[in-house]
Structures
1.
Amino acid sequence: MSSQTLSPAGGPPAAEQKHTAKERGRVLPFPITGQEIVLILVIAVLWAALAVSTPAFLTSSSVVPLLVAMAPVALIGIGMTVIIITGGIDVSVASIVMVCAVIVAKTMVSSGIPLPVAVLLSVVIGGLLGLINGVLIAYGRVHAIIITFGTANLFKFLGLQIFGGTTVDNIPGTLDFFGRGAAGRTLGIPHSFLIMLVIAALAWYYLRHTAGGRHLYAIGNDADAARLAGVKVQRRVLLAYVLTGALTGLAACFVIARGTSTLAPNVGAGMELAAIAAVVIGGTSIMGGRGSVLGTILGALLVQTVTSGVTQLGWRSQLSSLFIGIFILIAVGADLLRQRTRRTA
Amino acid sequence: MSETGTTGAAESAPPRPAPTDAGAERLSVTGVSKRYGAVRAIRNADMTVRAGTVHALVGENGAGKSTLIKILSGATTADTGRITFDGEPVTIHTTADAIGLGIATVYQEPQLFPDLTVAENVFTGREITRRGKVDWAAQNAQVVELLELIGLPARYSTVAVSELSIAEQQQVSIAKALVGNAKVLILDEPSAILTDTEIEVLFGVVRRLAASGVSIIYISHRLDELFLIANEVTVMRDGQTLGTWPIEELSVRRIVELMVGGILEDTPPDHKAADAPPVLVLEKLSCAGEYADVDVAVRPGEIVTLYGLIGSGAAEIAETVYGMRRATSGRMLLEGTPIAPPSPRAAKKLGIALLPANRKLQGLFSFQSIAFNISAGHLPLLSRFGTWMDRGRERTVARDFIKRLAVKTPHERQPVSAMSGGNAQKVVLARQLVERPKVLVLAEPTQGVDVGAKEEIHKIVRSLADEGTAVLIVTSDLPEAIRVSDRLQVVRAGTTTVEFGPGASQADVLAAAAGALDHEEAA
Amino acid sequence: MSTAVSDRPPASAPQDSEGSGPPTSRARQLLSGVVRALLTQRIVLLLVLLVAVVITMTTLSARNYLSAPYDLSYMSATLISAVPLVMLGLAELLVITSGRGGIDLSVGAIVSLVSMVFGFAYGEWGWPLWAAIVLAAAVGGLCGAVNGFLIAFIGYPALITTLATYYAYSSLAVVINNQQPISTQPIQDFFSAAGTVPVAGLQVPLGTITFLLPTAVVIWLLLNRTTYGRRLYAIGTNDVAAQWSGIDVRRTRFLAYTAAGIISGLVAVVTVAQFASARPDAGVAGNGMALPAITIAVLGGVAITGGIGRVAGVVLATLLIVWLNAGILLAVPGNAGSQFQLFALGIVLIFAALLNGLTQRKYGGTG
């Protein structure tokens, strides 16, 4: 069990005993973990390799679509990070994207609503769907994977009903601000990416510097001990799913923005897996209790780099899934190693 | 053997704290009782703790100490009785109630969050915030103060708890308990996992707290320590509080006599172990960090008991015999041949069986039937070609054991989750006996078992020995250890010490285990 | 995760009956007994629901509310979709019962990949059918063994691992033949394997006889009559106690995932026959096959924490879903019908999970 040296009576005084506790002069642990540094390096290497093999890679016509594509996944990933830190998971986000997207698109087509209203509508609907998840998981005491499997189906049904068997056409460019064309960028960087970064920074701050944020980690470490310490476990878990739903609603707007003027019922397909992959590759432990938003952003960037890179190189696009799967396994393996070298189980 | 029972080190130890506000009653329980189903854990317990004193609570396993502590800490509620705090009657229904009153409890297993830092752990649930943001500097400042009080380095404040040793984690738990301005601090076996130096530091903290008016309820099996730290002692036995005495009026021997009560001084049956060579021999067996230089020999038909308190290393010795743990030096011999089983499967093949200490966690398949539980360890035997279950044979074997061990059940298909502790324990024991083992190791064989079943299990073990099995019992239950064994070895601080033959007095054994009888042989 | 209160009495321990209320009537005792049986004996509940569905549908049919008659021949024709469902449901039964958060999200991806492999072997390389089937089972087993190795021997969490292998296998399936399905002549002729045979006057899909029944029987024997089955239930109930009892926990768990892979490989053969084409997205199209399989397992009484699950439960749950879906298709024709099936599946899963959780807490598990 424990590997500490329990010396029999008359052992050496405490000062001489070895500790592996690391020296930290700061008030808090360092903001970047080893895994995130590795990720930055890997991304840098990949970008360098791609730039060498396809000179077109480092032009804005490649990089900007890459950022636009990864923004919604990263945004959902922020919420997913929070959920996974508490020890849960949410596989219904893809369906939430579909529902929010179809409602917003249809409303834009029929009523010509302006951008702020569209975004508000999407966020509220996403939040409500997230609330359903949250209530069932926080108070139903059933594993999140099963519940969200079920709600994924329910929301998909809802979305398909709203689609009514056809696509939504002639979607106006209200949401272009988020990333299409020159109007969608500032200094060449798409707005959706910038907005995502801002939200990520807020989330990072929340997780690191507020009591509520730290409570989420406590819940992921030991929900019972957290409850005994006075943490409102159920409320926090509920909020995590509501927040993710809201962020997914915003991400749906990003998805509409980067698509064509036609929205098909397969919108959002696979995004839950991409978000989970981003979170796990980013170093957040699937067991809960550990993780950071920065890692998720990097993970999403890596996932998108792989996808775009595969296309740029002219390889089959499905190969990107293979690489993502391998990256996930490597990341989880690294997490396992980290757990093994801890002193306590 | 000195009457006062103190060790030499006590002479140079700082004086015990003089109670401030001597006589000021802080916490008092009267007439408290609690039952769990048919078992009465405590009945009519009375205890009064004064401000600024270190109040020791002692008693054998099962005497009711843990239940009393759970009631005080709010983890459970009493069925009857009154609790008063500072003279006012109070109700404690939840842990939050207890904490709100100022009663802080530090359990043996630190309830910490491994991935959070020490400072975060201390302040979880009561963070210091400034305009929404956690005030890390203020928290750290307080934690550093506490760490210095506890004797840990200040820089630990920003270290993740998972990087600390178990002993250090426990000290962090104590720090956590102190943040809430506790008026009563309950320490449950704090010294079990500490080295001597760490214990000294702990005592320093306890003395300082007492001097500042905090009452400390100190639960420990290590009676010699009490003479270094406690002001008063409450002794519990069989769920009742026998009384409270100032430490000056007591000695280790006297405390032991109170704890034990002199009821179970049976003369063990006249039993001659075979003079055959030992079946199992442990020679200078060591496992780094757990135990060292262990010497044990068990002959066929003999019952040898390793008696040790928690943290003594006895449980880990048993695990090594059964292949759950690897020794790092020394030898283990089975019928003269050196062995080092790498797994329980290997140990079983060699003919070693083990009844695990924690029935619920390590022994029972809770919602499966009795037959399932018994056959789980012997699937190849109870099958054809090792693949097809021979359910008829399984049924027969199960029924046979139900009868032999007097398991109270209508049939072998009953799920074990519905059974009492004693009956369930018999089922797990049955599993060990299916393929007549050469060596049977029993870890805490009657923990959580009622008196009647306890008696029966002892008889069963005795008859097994009579049939030639070599039995090694590892237990922290003193009366059991004395009743059943032919030879009893005390395990303390990771090594085997004094050995007693049949007819040892409980007082002597307990004293030896508590450290008052180092290196003395008893008759 | 340690709790301080170590010897707290179990939640299901009987309360001290201090003071009794008014004596309950015989009828109320009978009612509570029935409720208890329904909740704890999943088989009973499923039979009741199955009967309810069939009666409802045949009544609606008799009153001409349905677009086509819901009779025995329709019911037996729809059994074709039961074949892959039961088999994958049994695969999930094995891995979920093995405990430690066991689950397999990759079964659909394995189906896709093995479909292509089978397509190559039987459709292009001219292998005899039996050899191609053996190959399918072997490749599926290999895929499952990768899962099993990572999860049982290395200690990877099952959920995220099978998610990763889902990614990997589904991409391999597409890449292996450049996204093209294989529909050569032998494959098209193979469609005859998806035909029906007359049994007791009804046309029963061949697949139920050749694949579904043998698989169900084999798994039933495995779980109920072999030592392996005991070991599987043991590690799922309490793998620490299993270790102390001398059971090889890791090997038992590894074999569960491998077996799930083999079953998925056989499902691939069935799927190719059904569509007369080896499609690279066979198991991952739409929702994928993993979700319905897991739904059926959970509905069939498999406890997500392990140690509990019966073949009969999975079979009955499949029949319930299949015949319910068949009825929905007739009641709500067209696209709306298949969408409503989604809704039904989602609701059923949540309901079944909540029910499983409730009975585990109140009664200590389903039978």
2.
Amino acid sequence: MLSVQLTKRRGDFRLDLEFGAPTPGVTALFGRSGCGKSTAISLIAGLLPADAGRVQIDDDVLLDTARGIDVDARHRRIGVVFQDARLFPHLDVRGNLEYGLKRLPRTAPRPIRFDDVVQLLGLDTLLARRAHELSGGEKQRVSLGRALLRQPRLLLLDEPLASLDAARREEVLPWLERLRDGFAIPIVYVSHQFDEVLRLATRVVLLDAGRALAHGDLATVSRDPALRAIVGPDAVGAVVAGVVERINGGGLAQIRIGDVLLNVEHEAAVVGQRIQIQVLARDVMLATESPRGLSVRNAVAARVVSVTPDVGRAVLVELDIGRAATLLARITAGAAQELGIAADMQVWALIKAVSLRGHVFNVPAH
Amino acid sequence: MYDDILRAMLSPAETEALTLSLSVAARSVAFNLPLAVLVAWLLTRTRFAGRTLFDAFVHLPLVLPPVVVGYLLLVLFGVRGPIGGWLHENFGIQLAFTGTGAALATAVMSFPLVVRSIRISLETVDRGLEDAARTLGAGPVDRFFSVTLPLIAPGVLAGAILAFSAGLGEFGAVITFASNIPGETRTLPLALYTALQTPDGDALAARLALISFSLGLAGLLASEFIARRLRRRLGRA
């Protein structure tokens, strides 16, 4: 368990943050630029002194201002990957990777081995290069490796993809997934891109103006109105988590979410994998009768939980699909009125399989 | 071999002045480099009371007449001075009127140049790299030697070469503090000055001037060359 409780005042800005996260696991700190995400990272890493607070990872208390405990950043064994990579320009890639490793106490255990990291992150051809000879994506991979070899208790990734263009981001994301699934290290991932959060994290802390507006698993927070305000109307949608049950022909995977089976387009899914899907509210249609003669692959029986006004002339309908799983649908206010959509009504939610993108999570090997 | 070539080209007096100049300049750099790094670090990275005054004090040799610096050194480091007397009594070290004294006077004169050069480098070092080193387990001293110093190496080296080149020609402070003793403190500029005072020393003076000129030019070129190579190594070409 990672538990964080921090306050810090910097000029007019005040950070007052409290959250817990399971270890291992990926927790996203999500929010707009300037909401205090990077400040939070500096405080957890110990690079910035907190006014007050507590940071504890499992049994290790790294900061407890009430008890006068404040472990120096260099002894916290928290690996940090910065947005700008911060590779040492006077060392080659090998020198960068070994920097933290060489500074471990002689007796410290080293479960994460140099060769494993080099292999996992595909660094073998880069070892003799210097930082300025690497692309942005390669720099971030080296930076990840350097942090990993410090044998960290916790990895803090501070918007590691923010300085990369879209193509480079897509190039680095699979490495981040491999790192997440390859080592049982808790990760705090800072981002202002919800698609990265969806792809990498299972828990999220929603940060705005220095405060946590919501935190919990992604499915719960994805329904929070505070999140809707941050991601904008087009990205609103419930996140559901399930397990790959079957692979059908034609690139369709069948995902079990509680009692419901959802067909999702996914080329690489393997039966038994955990999968996380965001169902965008604008991609969900509602029917009051069991639909027939439609091309749509998914027709899910659901109960209306609530109908709330949304942007423009739309309403947002929250749907219960059993076992506490929830969907969001955005329909026009006119359609809702015509169909008489109201709380407790039984409806069918129609979702095209091709509009769903699943993100798979492998259970860590160790 | 090197000695033989020098001897073939230069007279004994010229060789003596040249080697003495080189030795005094080299020793002056060795004196002031570590201290200059420390002072530059204090001036860029710390805030303390009297920092502005300290800064001004460090730069004094740039604006004071060299003779005044030499005089102050004589007062402090002379055999009867507070520091010089203590050194003489306890260690038998005499600085005034010796080659080491010439090196000290030269070091004091070039000190601000070295501090300035290192300071400019220090100000451009990305502090984020030091933070990264800290999260990787490096303590303050370790961070300085493993990250900061390699990054400011071009500035340190440029400063050292500049100080060395300037040190070859220091006149006022040296002649005041260390006098003009052949084979001991008579460096190139002092030898040139002496030649000009001698009835038919014009030719010798011209040759010494030419040697000084060549050395200065070589120093500046070397400084530029090394700085460029180091910058390229750090990827900032």
